[in-house]
Specification:
Blueprint (H helix, E strand, L loop, with lengths): L1 H24 L7 E11 L3 E6 L5 E5 L3 E11 L6 E13 L8 E14 L4 E16 L7 E3 L2 E10 L2 E6 L2 E3 L5 E3 L2 E10 L3
Antiparallel strand pairs: 1-4, 1-13, 2-3, 4-5, 5-6, 6-7, 7-8, 7-9, 9-10, 10-13, 11-12
Length: 195
């Protein structure tokens, strides 16, 4: 799996370099490389913890749940204007309703995807989502937990920057217990400059 990831990174680097070289020699007005800002609100996954409140209520923390923001690049492939490569690094975060302690699950998602522009506004995407530095912090109330790095496929369909995504992933804790981190999400993205 590590060799596949290294090969994928190397291929993305070569394509980005190739696109940059062609862009220097062409007179196309659109920019082949753009700054990308993404966001998502996601639900799903197994419950990794349960928080009990003094009023008797409880709240579960799910592995796939959270809001995220990411920054990266969007690269248009020269000669194939309907195909894009996207790459982002961000943070995904979920907290609980507790007001006296900060209980949270954080992770660093790295997303690499190939995208097809079915129309000028409709984008279909498939790629690889990698979560790193996955940590559950109890704010001092109990034992914190760390999870091993995880990877899985991500699929998205978006219309003018707003879309739906599905990520398939499993987290493993330090004792090798597995948790589904599958998530369905509402996504947002913007590539700058717009033209």
């Amino acid at each position: 799996m590590k060799s596949i990831k290294k090969l994928f990174f190397f291929a993305c680097f070569l394509l980005a370099s190739y696109t940059s070289l062609l862009a220097q020699n062409s007179k196309v007005k659109t920019k082949p490389a753009k700054f990308l800002i993404t966001g998502a609100l996601e639900l799903g996954g197994d419950e990794i913890a349960e928080v009990y409140f003094t009023n008797g209520e409880r709240q579960g923390v799910r592995a796939g749940q959270g809001g995220s923001v990411g920054f990266g690049g969007q690269f248009q492939i020269s000669g194939a204007e309907k195909f894009l490569l996207r790459s982002t690094v961000g943070i995904k975060y979920v907290t609980t309703a507790a007001d006296n302690v900060h209980i949270r699950l954080t992770r660093i998602p790295i997303v690499l995807s190939g995208n097809y522009m079915a129309t000028t506004k409709l984008r279909i995407s498939a790629g690889l989502s990698m979560h790193r530095n996955i940590q559950f912090n109890t704010g001092g109330l109990g034992g914190d937990a760390k999870f091993k790095a995880a990877s899985g496929p991500i699929f998205e369909i978006a219309y003018t920057g707003i879309g739906l995504s599905y990520t398939a992933m499993k987290y493993k804790d330090e004792s090798n217990h597995s948790y589904s981190a599958n998530a369905i999400g509402l996504t947002f993205s913007i590539a700058l400059p717009r033209k």
